[in-house]
């Protein structure tokens, strides 16, 4: 049962954990919401969601991090993901560790993405001892860029994402980054 799930770490309102196959149904709903997926090439099917969760479980086993499944602590409700993932697409800054988030639309505008991303950076730098974390979003995704700024990240550049070459509206992406020293200076 999720409420008894041991969290890898928590923030004030959120619990971060490895994925369970019981998360597929809700994550598939999130991934099929056109508004949630506005800045992606399209929505994701239940099968694609299952494959994503299996990749995240494997990455967690291999690396000790992933885009973590996130629950609201108060209710144990699963609301989406916030976390870290290795990116290896062809670019002059990859491979890199990326921070990302995707939450149920009903949970937007409550500060969860910012709270959760800041806590993930804290975990990345203080427990995992990572040196740098990047964030990538299409330049049209101003909401994600605002979260990047709120968690202390600095814009490095814009670039054309090779995986989005067939999606002109999304192809130009913004790259943000923060290192351990910068994070500690801002938040400690």
Would you kindly provide a written description of the structure presented here, covering whatever features stand out?
By secondary structure, this protein is α+β, with helices and mostly antiparallel strands. It has a single domain, classed as Aminopeptidase. It has six helices and eight strands; from the N terminus they run ββααβββαβαβαβα. The strands form two sheets. Strands 1-2-3-4-5 form a five-stranded antiparallel β-sheet, sandwiched between helices. A three-stranded antiparallel β-sheet has the order 6-8-7. Helix 1 crosses helix 2. It starts with 8 loop residues before the first strand and ends with a helix. The mean pLDDT is 95. Keywords: Transferase. It comes from Pedobacter nutrimenti.
Beta-strand proportion: 25-35%
Our measurement of the CA-to-CA distance between the termini, rounded to an integer number of angstroms, reads 35 Å
> Cα-atom Rg, whole angstroms?
16 Å
* Structural class category: alpha+beta
Total count of domains? 1
Q: What proportion of the residues is helical, as a percent range?
A: 25-40%
Strand order of the largest sheet: 1-2-3-4-5
Q: Outline the low-pLDDT stretches.
A: none
Keywords: Transferase
Domain N-acetyltransferase: 14-171
Protein name: RimJ/RimL family protein N-acetyltransferase
GO molecular function, one term: acyltransferase activity, transferring groups other than amino-acyl groups
